[in-house]
């Protein structure tokens, strides 16, 4: 627009989400001292709005309320207004989300919280419509009522906010409660399996009716459960549940059949109609999970899905400097001339569009069949659209189709009298043409901030896929991203990670004026990534950095009194609570992954105090693990790794030798959840030999690459053939 627009303070921020609000009539402040001082000086309440750039309802509330001039005036007159990107500041988000969930019974984004000038919350909610509706009070009304309360009943309000804070402090504590030992793994694993088994959807896979999230933590738990119970009916069921879920997700509309990658979740039971945003953390975890499914089953189907995810990330979420962007939005303009964004517009199809793109007759098929007929049959395309109105409350998808594989290739082939091989070629060609047509549509908004934690999850995805699928280019991509983290999100002077950096002008990488320090999840997911990358590349510098970061993590976040790690470090006066997360959700919680990290760190370093710390985390979460382990499947999985002791698989050999490579390929081809891999290359001055003196006593047998299986630093007899090694890894 040619009219000069007035920008608020958010114009100086780097976060794409904050920049989206820089031209609102609301006088937004970023979270920080300037806003807190203004509230105190003018004795005003604070209105805090938290969201993220790919959040659909955040966009809706902005359009309806934050762009509304009159509502903006009320906000500016009575409140100091603060905007937070929850992906930049998960610490702020968690404190106030704990409050919203405790007081309203629900939570989500956008999160709206009103608090006193000293940051104590007293009213909270999520999305508010601008004006009163039958069942919902409007945002304008809430603003006016709260401003009135502050004028009339300030003391009562302050007293109330103090009581709320005390209750929250009490509620949010996770600590050791008298008993000194971790819970028994066998019981925790069995109960978690039963709870997942009873919530499992036998028809479509997944663990709820709707909405359905991918939740890789559940599938990874089931893989580990299977590995420990391979010969029992429960073990077989665990594997079947995980593989069936992965198959149904890959066939579903949650999987982008044209542009690759996975959307965030499905609104229905069938994995059909998704919320269309694509998050980096899902791609990273799902690439790893599909790679594990391939290791276990040997079925190329799963390997192809992993490759599909990594293609999407390499093409659409990769920065030239090596980092990974955070997400792509769900909403976009249907055409270049559209005035209004619609959810899913970039991804959905009208039947006539597909017919027009795929008009070619199919040789050898029943008379008059076009490629479009075959394609539409296979992907469930209907003339009037295949989205139920129930799943489309705003009628944004009316007459449109979300592609979903409705038939097996055999069924589609026989329906049109085709050879299965011929069908693959036709579908491939159809997808290619649709991709070319889709590339002409306006793209959804890209959130180009780069977060250490999510980059960690994605590095693990590339490294694990590279090892399991024997694709060296994936391992190289993981190493490139790890080097990016070291360059842009790590401060070598104090050994600390930073939370985020941003794509700048001319493909530079920018940092905000005051960089945000890394949180627990940044350390945990980056350390996990470096262990995964070492095992895939056997480059010892990654191992060295991982152990250095583990020491820093212990120093900044460990709770010596109650055990386990706090999510954020001490010393930030604007944070009312130091919390410990207690749920493995779309991402695993940091303490869950920290258990396995500590056990791996101990195996590579010989520092047994790390094993002790792992046990102390499990002890702190003991009650939850014993009663409702389904809320912590990744930590439940870690109890087994703790209980069975990690096996050190040591390969003695020349890294370049063909015999060494063959032994390594054997290790990578087997799913074995409680092992760490190391290469003893004979360099006694190298990092590993300095850490682990026992390696010096292991040698090659008959001049061949030799494997040892060690536990607690005592080793098995040497083996020199991949077959024998496989037998040891799969007892």
UniProtKB/TrEMBL annotation:
Q: Name one Pfam family in it.
A: Thioredox_DsbH
InterPro entries, A to Z = 6-hairpin_glycosidase_sf (IPR008928), 6hp_glycosidase-like_sf (IPR012341), Ssp411 (IPR024705), Ssp411-like_TRX (IPR004879), Thioredoxin-like_sf (IPR036249)
- Coiled-coil ranges per the record? none
One GO biological process term: carbohydrate metabolic process
Task: Describe the location of the Spermatogenesis-associated protein 20-like TRX domain by residue ranges.
Answer: 8-168
Gene3D superfamilies to which the protein is assigned, alphabetical = 1.50.10.10, Glutaredoxin
Q: Can you name this protein?
A: SPT20 protein
Tell me the organism: Baryphthengus martii (Rufous motmot)
Its lineage reads:
Eukaryota, Metazoa, Chordata, Craniata, Vertebrata
């Amino acid at each position: 627009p040619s009219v000069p627009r007035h920008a608020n303070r958010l114009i100086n921020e780097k976060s794409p989400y904050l920049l989206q609000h820089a031209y609102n009539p609301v006088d937004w402040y970023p979270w920080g001292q300037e806003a807190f001082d203004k509230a105190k000086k003018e004795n005003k309440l604070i209105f805090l709005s938290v969201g993220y750039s790919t959040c659909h309802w955040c966009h809706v509330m902005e359009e309806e309320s934050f762009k509304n001039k009159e509502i903006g005036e009320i906000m500016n007159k009575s409140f100091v207004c603060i905007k937070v990107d929850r992906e930049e500041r998960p610490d702020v988000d968690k404190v106030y989300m704990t409050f919203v969930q405790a007081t309203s019974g629900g939570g989500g984004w956008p999160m709206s919280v009103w608090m006193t000038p000293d940051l104590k919350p007293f009213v909270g909610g999520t999305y508010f419509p601008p004006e009163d509706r039958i069942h919902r009070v409007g945002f304008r009304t809430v603003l006016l009522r709260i401003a009135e309360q502050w004028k009339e009943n300030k003391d009562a309000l302050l007293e109330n906010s103090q009581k709320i804070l005390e209750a929250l402090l009490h509620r949010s504590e996770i600590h050791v409660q008298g008993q000194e030992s971790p819970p028994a793994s066998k019981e925790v694993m069995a109960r978690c399996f039963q709870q997942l088994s009873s919530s499992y959807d036998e028809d479509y896979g997944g663990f709820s009716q709707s909405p359905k999230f991918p939740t890789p933590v559940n599938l990874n738990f089931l893989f580990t459960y299977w590995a420990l119970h391979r010969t029992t009916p429960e073990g077989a069921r665990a594997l079947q549940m995980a593989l069936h879920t992965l198959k149904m997700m890959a066939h579903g509309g949650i999987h982008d059949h044209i542009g690759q990658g996975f959307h965030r979740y499905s609104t229905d039971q069938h994995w059909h109609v998704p919320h269309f945003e694509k998050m980096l953390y899902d791609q990273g975890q799902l690439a790893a999970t599909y790679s594990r499914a391939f290791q276990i089953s040997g079925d190329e189907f799963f390997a192809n899905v992993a490759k599909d995810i990594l293609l999407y990330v390499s093409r659409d979420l990769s920065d030239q400097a090596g980092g990974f962007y955070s997400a792509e939005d769900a909403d976009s303009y249907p055409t270049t001339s559209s005035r209004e964004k619609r959810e899913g517009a970039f991804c959905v199809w009208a039947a006539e569009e597909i017919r027009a793109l795929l008009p070619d007759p199919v040789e050898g098929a029943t008379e008059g069949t076009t490629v479009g007929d075959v394609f539409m049959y296979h992907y469930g395309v209907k003339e009037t659209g295949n989205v139920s109105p129930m799943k489309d409350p705003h009628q944004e998808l009316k007459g449109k189709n979300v592609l979903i594989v409705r038939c097996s290739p055999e069924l589609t082939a026989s329906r049109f009298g085709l050879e299965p091989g011929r069908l693959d070629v036709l579908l491939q060609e159809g997808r290619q043409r649709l991709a070319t047509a889709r590339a002409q549509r306006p793209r959804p908004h890209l959130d180009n901030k780069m977060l250490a934690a999510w980059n960690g999850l994605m590095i693990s995805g590339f490294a694990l896929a590279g090892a399991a699928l024997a694709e060296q280019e994936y391992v190289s991509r993981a190493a490139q991203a790890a080097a990016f983290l070291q360059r842009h999100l790590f401060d070598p002077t104090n050994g600390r990670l930073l939370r985020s950096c941003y794509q700048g002008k001319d493909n530079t990488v920018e940092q905000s004026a005051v960089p945000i320090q890394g949180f627990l999840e940044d350390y945990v997911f980056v350390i996990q990534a470096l262990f995964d990358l070492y095992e895939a590349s056997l480059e010892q510098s990654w191992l060295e950095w991982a152990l250095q970061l583990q020491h820093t993590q212990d120093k900044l976040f460990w709770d010596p009194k109650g055990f386990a790690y706090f999510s954020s470090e001490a010393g930030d006066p604007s944070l009312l609570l130091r919390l410990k997360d207690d749920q493995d959700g779309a991402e695993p919680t940091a303490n869950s992954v920290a258990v396995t990290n500590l056990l791996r760190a101990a195996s590579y370093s010989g520092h047994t105090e790390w094993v002790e710390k792992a046990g102390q985390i499990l002890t702190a979460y003991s009650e939850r693990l014993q009663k409702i382990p389904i809320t912590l499947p990744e930590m439940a999985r870690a109890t087994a790794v703790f209980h069975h002791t990690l096996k050190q698989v040591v390969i003695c050999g020349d890294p370049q030798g063909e015999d060494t490579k063959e032994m390594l390929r054997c290790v990578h081809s087997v799913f074995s959840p409680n092992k760490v891999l190391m290469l003893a290359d004979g360099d006694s001055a190298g990092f590993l030999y300095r850490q682990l003196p026992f390696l010096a006593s292991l040698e090659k047998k008959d001049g061949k690459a030799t494997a040892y299986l060690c536990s607690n630093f005592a080793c098995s007899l040497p083996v020199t053939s991949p077959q024998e090694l496989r037998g040891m890894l799969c007892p």
